[in-house]
Structure formats: structure tokens, C-alpha cells
Target: Family 43 glycosylhydrolase
Amino acid sequence: MNIPRFFKTVLITLVFLVCANYLAKAQNTAYLFTYFTGNSGAEESIRFAISKDGYTFRALNNNQPIISSSAISETGGVRDPHILRGADGKTFYMVVTDMVSAKGWDSNRAMVLLKSTDLINWTSSIVNIQKRFAGNENLKRVWAPQTIYDEKVGKYMVYWSMKHGNDPDKIYYAYTNADFTDFTTEPKQLYFSPTNGAAIDGEIIYHQGKYHLFYKTEGSGLGIRLAISNELTKGYVLQDGAVQQTKDPVEGAGVFKLNTGEGYILMYDRYMSGKYQFTKTTDFKKFSVIDSDISMDFHPRHGTIMPITAQEAKRLMDKWYQPERTLFGAKSSAIKKINVVTDTSKKTIFLPVKSGTNLKAFNPNFLDLPNISISPKAPYDFSKGPVKITATNGKTKETYLISAAVNNNPVLDGYYADPEILYSKQTGKYYIYPTSDGFNGWSGTYFKTFSSTNLVDWKDEGVILDLPTHTKWAKKNAWAPTIIEKKINGVYKYFYYFTAAQKIGVAVADHPTGPFTDLGVPLISHKPNGIKGGQEIDPDVFTDPKTGKSYLYWGNMYMAVAPLNEDMMSIDTAAIKIITPNSSFREGTEVFYRKGKYYFMWSEDDTRSENYRVRYGYSDSPTGKITIPENNLVLAKDIAQGVYGTGHNSVIQIPGKDEWYIIYHRFTRPKGITMGDAAGFNRETCIDKMEFNEDGSIRKVIPTLKGIDKLK
Model:
């Protein structure tokens, strides 16, 4: 066929463009995350992490700084790193806030500009806005710079927020010189919040012919907002509503495009809760939370992510990543990830797995990171003992002995403490009601429940009571609940007693999973007469099988009891009685009845202590006096197994059988014992069998990793 030269040229051009576009898309095969980690010392430094898929990130250089802050900054610390690939495709630009938070939030006037051609070696320059530009005498702070290439003028533009005097923070911009060491233009206002709140932490993304400016505001319209313009340096119009998908305070929005072409990820720092949230979008209108898909072995603060090539990823991995670390992050959902035990000196890893896992052919799903290979390939037969597995980057090899076994303890995935357990006659299921743990200083605000038919496999039934949403009288410190099932006028009711803001409340529902309706006021908010210390926390509810009368117990540093009125929503205040067993009592009362005896259990010491433990006494009455046996220790730490801080328990009797189980929390294992006081709010829930001697005394329970077998 004869094709005219003009059409041949057009055809060749089209083919070239298609191929170039394909190669451009194929070029970026990984992601680089740059971030800082906190507000003290070396935490205010630039760190790197890497990912192959944009969802699983692993810290480079063992989560240590890749650049010394003192070597590049005016203040000795840097924050809010933003990284950009240059227009030439091979030069990289990074900007950071030059600031140490310990000196105050209004203490900095500078930023640092950095440049690199290999992502390893960086040159830097400090730009102090107050010194560099006149008219900034009342400048208070310079925050969160970012860089974008302005194609119209052929220059790099840095934009950042500044606060002058009592004015709100506004976003400014200036163009840099070719060396990226200084500005060639005066700072000019880019954007201010129409709500007259602060406008900080700007992030500009070009999408479908428009510039999308994400920023944080405070005051009216609190959160991360989006303004859109046809031009880079002006005309931004604020869109309706905030874009964050959380009620937590947020800052530091970062957006990156997925290499797969599946859309964008918007992430931001939930700075008050110490967590990051990731969301996915294709149109910058709807954002779906994808936190469950994200895996990180570090805790970032305000950072940004940039797609990188395979060659760039290899360079970074060779410089700052040890191949063995690929074996540390097995992703299989069958693994209890927070309980994995790694010993780098002995080159061993233990993988605790969930009930039902086939150990004869198990794939741990080790990390898939750039330039790392693992041999032999999965699946592995762990039923016969440890397996030798090697990770290599082509130069360095590391071999570990890896073993796996079923560990039913902890029974719940994640951090949960102070577990209360209930068997529901209405549903024929067991329910655990714990404190939602893992929050600094026990600052959780909601309660969940979990259901099971066999005490081993537990289903998350979700939040049943959220203090900010469901209570008027307390918004913080959701702790240590208890519950009872009652049949009233032929209808099952569930009365849920809980601690909130160091007071005790009550809520009621028609089903074990709620919804629960709060009474509207605290049930107990003051100390009993004669009590001067301690706290009004840790309720326990018990119905005397002899009389059908229900009682409420509570107290920290004292044990109080009062009969519940028939409505189960109030107590007989005239009958409050203090029945503290002895000086070992701290908190966590648990009462049950067996063979004519009323058993009282409690926790000794402090929940932050490795020696937190359970003791017991008994009585011939639900209101005491309590007799204390000579050997009354029920549960304590087991150093050989690495189990510490065992306490705040409940018990359950299997219906129709003299078969009993103790439900308790422990420090998270294996890291808890290394966490100091933080171990006291990073706890996990376990179940072990509890047995009695012929005389009715309770045998000491040895905490186990294996846990119990499924009920039949």
C-alpha cells in the first residue's frame, strides 16, 4: 500500500508518542516516602521509606535520618519534607521547614532547599524569609514548603504558609534560581482561607487541566479543604466541605498518583492520635478510606510520596536497606502480626498464626520490595519444624530459621484490655466487651464488642457505644465495661455499665451488639462516704442466683458494692458498702458464684507494671465479708514465655457445665516489656482455662500462648 509521506510522518509520530507514553508509565515502578517522626531531638529529621505497590512501605536506614538536620538547618531540626522529581526527570528537589518544635510554634523564619541527582547525596541552602526579604518584621512562622514546576515560566515555584502578627496563616509563593539555592522573586500571596481561618500545609496537584490546592484550615471549616483554579498562581475557588474522612484533627495533606493508573492517594497526618490516614480517589470528589490496605513499619508525621523508577529504587535499597528486613514483615492475614517474635542475633523468626491455618503448606506472604528476592519460594511446610529461608539483593544474603505455630492468645486482633465476657441466652453466643486500647494515656473514646460460638474464633461486631456521639456527660477515657443479660417481661435486655471520664455510666439495648442507649447522666460520679482516694472506675455487675438480686461493684483503691434497683439503671445509694478485701486490692473487681461460694477477684499493682496480677477471695454473701485464702494468687506474669502484666479479668462458665475460663489482658507480646509505661495502654486480650481444687480453691492459672481449644 502506498502511504503519502505526510501520513507516514503522522503515523510515525503517533506511534512514537504512544510508545513514549507507555514507557513513561512503565518507568515508575516504586514509591519513595519522605517524612519526619515527631517533636523531639532526632525525630525532627528527614527519613525515607520505600514501596513497590504504594500500599506497603518499609523504612530505609532502619528508620533513622538520611540527612543530619544540624548540618542543613538554622534551628537544628527540620519538618514537613516535600520531594519532587524535576522537569528533566533526573533531578530531585526537596524542601523542608527549618524548625525545632521545642522552641515554640512561632519560632521559625526559614526553610531549607535541597537538590540531588541520585536521591542519596544532597546539597542544601537555607532561606530565612525574614532576613532575605524586607517587610517581614512581624513574621512569626514559616511552615510546610512545597515545590512545583511552572511550565509557563520554566521555573520551580516554592509555596508555603506564613503568619504575620495577628493575621491568620496564608499561603505564599516565590520562584527559585536555577541552582535551587535561593528565590529570585519576592514572596507573593497565593491563597488565603475565605473562612478567615489559617491556611497551612498546601499541596498542589495538576489534574485534568486544573490545579487542585489541598490545605488545612482551622476555625470555621476545620480540616483539609480543596480549592481549584485554572491557573497555578491565582484564582483558587474553595470547594464545599472538608475532604478528610475522619473526625480526628488532621494536617499535612499529601497526594500521589498510583503508577498503575488507578487514581490517586490522599494521605494526611492524624497528629493527635499518632496515626496516618490514607484515602483513594479518582476524581478528587469522593475519597475512600484504605487504611486496612496500608502497611508501614514506622509512624510518619507530615510527609510526601513520589513515584520512582526501578533503577532509583535499587540505588536506595542498596544504600539503606538490609535484605533480611524483607522477612520481618510477613503480610498473611493468618499471622498475628503484632505478636511475631524476631531475634536478629540468633537469626530466627516465630510466626504465631490463627486457628485453622494449614501449617503443611503455608505462605507467610513476605514483603515484596524492589530488588529483593526470597528463596525457596512459598508455600512452606512448618509442621515439621523451622524452615531455612534466604533473602538477597544480589550482593548480600541473609538466612533465617523461620517457624510457625497456632497461638490462640491473644484472642482479639489488635489492642484491647479489661475484657468482660457474656454468654447470651438469646443468641447462644459469647461476647467480649473490652476497653479499646492502643491510645496514648488510655485516651480511647469508644467501645466495641466481639462475638464467638467457640471462644476461639471472634467476630468484630463494631462500635456499640461512642462517647462523643452517644453520651452527653463524658467524651473521653472509655474504660473497663461490664454487662448483664436480663429477661424483663419476657424480653431480653442488656445493661451495659462502663467507665467514662472517671465516672460510671449505664446504657441499655435489646441485643448484645446494641445499639445501646445511654442513660444521659452518670450512674456514679462521686466517691462513697469515707473514701478519699482512688477513682470511680471498673464496674462489675453480678446477679445472685439464689435471690435474683443484682449488684454493682466498682472502685480503684477501694471496692464498693450497691444493690441495683429493679430498673437496673439506678442503685440503692443508701446501701452502698465498702468491702475492700485487703491492701493488695487495686481495681478490676470480678464476682461470680460456684457451689455455694461467692468468689471475688481483683487486680493488684498497676496496669503499667509487669507485676500486674490477679488475686481472689470468697464469701458467703455477695456483699462480703471477703475471706482471703493463704495462697490466693490466680494469675501472674510468666517470664519464660515473655508474658507480662496479666490482669483485669472476667470469668465465664460454660452453660450447664462446671467448666470455667478466665479472660484477661496482658502487655502486648513481645514488645510490651520494652515499652515502659506505654505497655499499660498497649494491651491484648487472652483466654485460658481456670480450674478448682476439691475444696473450692482456685488453682493458679499459667498464662499460655497456645490458648484454649475450640468449644465443641
In short: The chain is about 5% helix and 40% strand. The longest strand covers residues 139-150. The radius of gyration is 30 Å. Confidence is low (pLDDT under 50) at residues 6-26.
